[in-house]
UniProtKB/TrEMBL annotation:
Keywords, comma-separated and alphabetical: Alginate biosynthesis, Membrane, Periplasm, Signal, Transferase, Transmembrane, Transmembrane helix
Annotated localization: Periplasm
Pathway: Glycan biosynthesis; alginate biosynthesis
Species assigned in the record: Halosaccharopolyspora lacisalsi
One BP annotation, GO: alginic acid biosynthetic process
Pfam families per the UniProt record, alphabetical: ALGX
Protein name stated in the entry: AlgX/AlgJ SGNH hydrolase-like domain-containing protein
Length: 432
């Protein structure tokens, strides 16, 4: 029989040691079994709900998380949580319940996902190893989905988190945008880039005095607007939007939605048309038209449904009849808009890569551009050949990319390799 030396660990698991042994530790079998059952229910619930016909509605302005690939190694298990959370059919009710409970018991928002420290969190901006990606995901979890501002204003939490925890650094963002300009212009096409500013950029005065990422967001925003427009030729609409708001007597963004009003879409359309042909908008007539209800996107993140009244406009490029077309689309499937040519219009075929801000501009782009197709930025990375064929149809290529996604390097299309793949096709099909 062997004698255990002092300080030597026993040869058996601590659960098998006599209860009086100082190293004895029970397995907590009951607790472990309960935890395992809860985990299985959590991950199985989306599958069971889908089987019985329930479908999860996306709450955020992004695609739902896809089922992780088994080839990701440990990333398969870390990715399961995001997939299961996004596909719970009762997610919106659960979020609403948590928010209501927090308000009822503590008189404040649950601020789901928010760090309590309020200290800035920085990103390394570029190392794509699995370990660094997990570190970025952890830092992202410290930020709220919603930033509660003053006087009922709400801001999208990504205004801060994307700037504080960027996927790639600002130098690589600039390089990616410049590469797109190079490949488009090398094919004989005109290129335009417009970056709608975040609501927190145009209206920082309604932000709370303290919030997670305040310092790093402010610093990153200042560097972004100091460097990116000058380096890439992007249009800076900040001052133009403030001027319009002062003229209209109301904010160009709403309190509860992250997007600009339709007046912002009109302003972008006018700016782009003038950049392509000076004086083309002189006879334009823009007037208020129909009003309709739109679901505010930020309250959705708190499990609440709120609507705001959208003021639409008519746009007559020749000063005559209204030429707008309201066609709802998220541009995941390219949207083609074509109309009879009239004075005051851009008649050259135009192709546009645009995100959700263009949803508030597409009716006016349709009124001002006789041949227009809009596709989503994600398509450029996921289906570059298809996007290349779409862009090759145009003589003008316009990119509309929102500030938070560009500043955070969140568009996969910012990888210069994506631009090169599309550029090869454009070079083989130049404008003649």
């Amino acid at each position: 029989m062997s004698i255990q030396e002092p300080g030597e660990l026993p040869a058996v698991h601590e659960a098998w040691l006599p209860r009086e042994h100082p190293l004895h530790r029970p397995r907590h079998g009951g607790r472990q079994a309960t935890a395992l059952v809860c985990a299985l229910l959590f991950f199985a619930a989306p599958v069971l709900a889908w089987t019985f016909g329930a479908r999860a509605a996306p709450l955020e302005n992004r695609p739902q998380a896809e089922f992780p690939s088994i080839t990701r190694g440990w990333g398969f298990f870390t990715g399961l949580s995001a997939w299961a959370t996004d596909h719970l059919s009762f997610r919106q009710g659960a979020v609403h319940s948590v928010e209501a409970l927090s308000q009822g018991l503590f008189g404040e928002s649950a601020r789901l996902g928010e760090s309590t420290s309020g200290s800035p969190v920085g990103g390394d901006g570029g190392d794509d190893s699995d370990r660094d990606r997990r570190r970025r995901d952890l830092r992202m979890s410290m930020f709220p989905d919603v930033i509660h501002g003053k006087d009922g204003w709400m801001y999208l939490g990504h205004d801060a988190s994307y700037k504080c925890v960027p996927e790639i650094g600002i130098d690589r963002v600039i390089a990616g945008l410049r590469r797109w300009r190079d490949v488009v212009e090398a094919s004989g096409r005109e290129f335009r880039l417009v970056i709608p500013p975040d609501k927190s950029t145009v209206y920082p005065e309604h932000m709370p005095d303290e919030f997670a990422g305040e310092r790093c967001m402010t610093e990153a925003r200042a560097e972004f607007w100091r460097r990116v427009p000058a380096a890439t030729g992007a249009f800076d609409m900040r001052e133009r939007l403030r001027t319009i708001a002062e003229s209209d007597g109301e904010p160009i963004y709403t309190k509860r939605d992250t997007h600009w009003r339709h007046r912002g879409g009109v302003a972008m359309t006018r700016m782009l048309a003038e950049s392509l042909r000076s004086g083309v908008t002189e006879d334009w007539q823009v007037r208020p038209s129909r009003r309709f209800q739109h679901n505010a996107d930020i309250p959705d993140l708190l499990g609440r449904e709120e609507t705001w009244t959208v003021q639409g406009h008519s746009l007559a490029p020749d000063g005559g009849a209204d030429n707008t077309r309201f066609v709802p689309s998220d541009f995941q499937q390219p949207l083609h808009l074509e109309s009879e040519q009239r004075p005051g219009m851009i008649t050259r075929p135009t192709r546009m890569v645009a995100d959700s801000f263009a949803q508030f501009a597409s009716p006016y782009m349709a009124a001002a551009f006789s041949d227009l197709t809009i596709t989503h930025p994600d398509n450029a990375a996921e289906r570059p050949r298809k996007v290349a064929r779409t862009l090759a149809e145009g003589e003008v290529v316009i990119f509309e990319l929102s500030e938070r996604f560009v500043a955070g390097g969140r568009y996969p299309m910012l990888d210069p390799k994506v631009a090169d793949r599309v550029g090869e096709y454009l070079a083989a099909h130049p404008v003649r």
